[in-house]
Predict the 3D structure of the following.
Amino acid sequence: MDTNNIVATADGSNTLFSQQYKQNFHSQKDGAIRESLYKHIVPALTHHKEKICLKILDICFGLGYNTFLTILENQKLSNPKKLEIISPEIDSTLINKLKYFKYPDEFKKISHIIDEISTNYSYEDELTKVTVFIKNARELIKNISDVDIVYQDAFSSDTNKELWSVEYFQDIKNTMNLDGILTTYSVATPVRLSLHENDFYIYENRSEFCRRATLAFLEPQQLRNFVDMELKKSRNKEAKAIYD
């Protein structure tokens, strides 16, 4: 792991700058921990607070903040859930070096999990099963089903549009249970239109700790901040979904 690519973020946690995609792995302004917690994990676990078993698709693994913080947040619950987390990641070298990355201090209690994933791409105990597949996400998701949560956390559509297209989200939809939730940091209209074209219901995720983000569901929700994509289309004739 090139230490020259390490970036300190606003909440004190570290992320990386990708030379391939010319982007940070996390928002430097929001912070890696805050972004993972408030754009992904908190809304997802809140949505499924009654479920005792959760199957999570973490797109893409990267530094593992979404997976590791999900495990840590689950451990705080009075009745922890049983978690199965599946994640594609194309960079095996990155995974192999995670054991050397300087994570926040709270990650020390799961350092054995980080080491195991970094070495063997998997970890399992009585409550948690994590599998990282060194594979293209588009290929992997075609063979996955019964997903409760999708962390849609790929590099942005500007540089990685294959993981934000209408066709991609059609495959994502096919992985999900009807009561599932998709979380993403992206608020880009083309991304939301790609979800809308697959009949997702779009809601704006607002938090005092982070900039706004997006939640998407296959069923309408009793939530504030519904985003009417048909209205947006009528007001912006130039707005287009992303296609392969």
User: Anything to note?
Assistant: The mean pLDDT is 95. The longest strand covers residues 176-184.
